[in-house]
Amino acid sequence: MTKQVHLAAHFPGVNNTTVWSDPAAGSHIEFDSFTHFARTAERARFDFLFLAEGLRLREQNGVIYDLDVVGRPDTFTILAALAAVTDKLGLTGTINSTFNEPYEVARQFASLDHLTDGRAAWNVVTSWDEFTGENFRRGGYLPKDERYGRARKFLEVATELWDSWKADDIVADKESGIFLSRPDVGSFRHTDDQFDISGQFNVPRSPQGRPVIFQAGDSEDGREFAAARADAIFSRHSTLDDGQAFYKDVKGRLATYGRGHDELLILPAATFVLGDTDADAAERAHEIRLQQVSGQTAIKFLEQLWNRDLSDHDPDGPLPTIDPLPGENTVAKGRASVRIHRDPRDVAAEWRARAEAENLTTRELIIEVTGRQAFIGSPQTVADTINDFVQADASDGFILVPHITPGGLDEFADTVVPLLQEKGVYRTEYEGETLRDHLGLSQSVVAGV
């Protein structure tokens, strides 16, 4: 059976995706940027807009890291404002489960779901980062092996709060002003090693019953968390082979939790570069990568792995001959790196072997190892490739990350989307009202409790 392609848009966050030197690059804090981006996504009939968060200005070598986006407005504030300028587009926000409290987050997302008539989604993330946690009362820090345990319980509590209201709990009585069908509506109590809370949840059941749940972790714990709890997973595995392996692995875990194959969507992030011809697009993509990874940016990224000050290193020369320093990363603060998951010395050895085999300078190597999956080609080539990935079970669709904000989606919306529609694999109009409708997720999971 031919699958339908799902598309979403990611407003670039704390990264160096955006090419700031391009005259078309706009603000990451002015509301007009978010409005333009969201309206383009809705015009293209995308499922949702995805907005990440940055909770502390990152540092490197003891100073603010100023080579990419260093800060922007609060995620919930932006999404609530976008509710007023969109009608169908889903609104997805990253909110951290390590630093927040279930009651507050559940209330915020239930409210957003009401404001949008059922278009809210929560990307549940965790944090290992003590540096960021210093901003928060409880320190926010959890050992790596405990953070998914808290996330699971956090989501469990939030779900209990959403489910504390039934669909028919609001019964209006104009004379008395009473709007509740039972005296204990919204009552809850939850006690475990993370939370000890009780009270009454004060937001009625929202149009989706519960917001759509996203997850973005790629570790073993992250995959299990997604298989057990998430409706969609924001993946980084977007080459064909890696995508198929990840897709098979995560979908294969669903049955353990009594879930069907279609109850979890796999949506990798992907960049794109379009041109009149494939050759034009390839040339343009090369120039964009050079702009995204300057010599200075390459050195900063190198320092994150090497855990050393490499400011005197030549980015147009070979990789450093010295090895990375083992132990805790004391150079980069507030940024995840390969040090979290692997021995930096092993990664450095792999990089050296690749640089030697392909005759790459430091900067050229960093460009290669930091590049996300990019769809590069004419609109026809990109439309064909996206559809091929989806039909081959490498993904269920893609979350697109343009290199220009806010107008970077415009060309894709005007050229690639119509070709997908002609193939019959992408909607020409929204067929439902809620984000669950757009994603093809069963409403039965949120039926009256």
Features:
single chain, 449 residues, alpha/beta, eight-stranded parallel barrel, three-stranded antiparallel beta sheet, 14 strands, 14% strand, disordered C terminus
Task: Explain what the structure shows.
This protein has 14 helices and 14 strands.
Write the layout of secondary structure elements.
Blueprint lengths: L5 E6 L19 H13 L4 E4 L7 E2 L2 E2 L10 H8 L7 E7 L5 H14 L4 E6 L4 H4 L10 H19 L24 E5 L4 E5 L11 E4 L4 H10 L2 E4 L4 H13 L12 E10 L3 H15 L2 H12 L25 E2 L10 H15 L3 H9 L3 E4 L1 H13 L5 E4 L9 H14 L11 H5 L10
Parallel strand pairs: 1-2, 1-14, 2-5, 5-6, 6-9, 9-10, 10-11, 11-13, 11-14
Antiparallel strand pairs: 3-4, 3-12, 7-8
Helix pairs in contact: 3-5, 9-11, 12-13
